[in-house]
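re: ur question from earlier - yeah i can do the single chain one, its not a big deal. heres the input i used so u can compare w yours
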Amino acid sequence: MQSDKYPTGLQVPDHYTTLEVAKMLGMAVRSVQLMVDRNELEAWKTPGGHRRISRTSVERWISAHGPAGADTPGTSSTGAGTAPASRPPAAAAKTSARAQQILLIEDSIHFQNLVGLIVQQHFPGAALHVANDGITGLAMYGQIQPDVLIVDILLPGIDGATLITTLRSHAQFARSHLIVVTSLDEQQREPYAFALQGVKVIHKPRLVAELPAALATCIPPARVLA
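and the output i got, formated as tokens:
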């Protein structure tokens, strides 16, 4: 898990490399280059000849199309409590038809496993998807459109508060229930207060005690049965 000293002023980058966009969209680097050539993505080159792609154009493309790949590096789609494994789009569509979708954006393997065990025990019919960082989580959100979004505050790439603020600019975010988990105490959360108003926040030492009840308010019992 990241240190609680993770910088509080981190902002979303205004551009990405071609490789970063390829990972976000689940595409080959060459495919992204062709998208730039077709003006589907806005890009420019540095003095050293390296291509940089506009974040705004990437977000616009994701909003319109969703990620192209079934899974993105750094992510997993699982039935609750099972080992992480890739899932093709057809299988994901079948799951969404019969189970509530939960997206966890968390970089700690320990807490990924802990949330998986909690979901398995209390909501065995729900489908849990995991992203290891904020950028990947943002892309996965557009693909899955989860019923419940669980987000850590301290994340690589984009902090959780900035990610939440970004998602709130999209109308589809209104359909998701939001739960924030964090190792930060109330005083340490103050820099993120702009994003946490009205949001259920669970201190990680209380995760086992509080997450089941928080999820129960989001997932009707009849909807978690496969």
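DSSP finds nine helices and nine strands in the chain. not sure if urs matches, ping me
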